[in-house]
Amino acid sequence: MLHNSWQRYFDNRAHDYMTEWYTKNWQQEVDLLVAELRLAPGSRVLDVGCGTGRHTVELARRGYQMTGLDFSIGMLTEAQKAAQAAGVEVEWIHGDATQFTTEQPFDGAICMLEAAIGLIPVDGDAYAQDLAVLRNLSAALRVGAKCILEVPNGARMLRSLTPEALTNGEFDLVRMVHTGESYWETPDGVEKAIVTSTRCYLPTDLTLLLRQSGFAVDAFSGSSAAHTPLALDDYTFIVIAHKV
Known about the structure:
Layout: H1 5-13, H2 26-37, E1 44-48, H3 54-61, E2 65-70, H4 73-86, E3 91-94, E4 106-111, E5 119-120, H5 128-139, E6 141-152, H6 154-160, H7 163-167, E7 171-172, E8 177-185, E9 191-199, H8 203-212, E10 215-222, E11 236-243
Parallel strand pairs: 1-2, 1-4, 2-3, 4-6
Antiparallel strand pairs: 5-9, 6-11, 7-8, 8-9, 10-11
């Protein structure tokens, strides 16, 4: 992976990341994951871009053998604290999803809230990183295993575009990449910012990328914690696929 400013961002956001609004429905999200993965307790599940472990820890609490992978040591530190508080065992891996390998295939995988898909290096290849992540994810799964991904919704971005966003470099229409500043606040209250890039997706191009990576798409849905139709203005959307 090229230098990715998202890594620095998440290292610095880890201490208060769970205060964000989008982290609040994790129990409902886990209900959806369990229903869609259709795995018996004891199954091995990989959480790519596990962050502070809100899905990982709850799935472990429900009896799954969990592995959480993340490139942010700050986020993994918070995840370890969460697992300890919940009294569950989780294998935590500090690593790069573009280089991840395993000798024992997993029974299922999740990658929620654009955790590893779409968060590309500034001026990085808009395809290579996500393709590498998905191919490694496919290689890490047994045949037939399901994968649930949540990715940035390109339709929402396109609907909100202004001509100025194209001319000033905020959005690259060819690469479907948004570049801007991401903010965090230090523990002593100082606001910091860093430039980050996000690759947005439409269901069509994500389907092609998944097919290139050894997956078949089963379904798309909205980004809520329940089955909802795809919506133009959702921040993210979910795709359910399986390894072929």
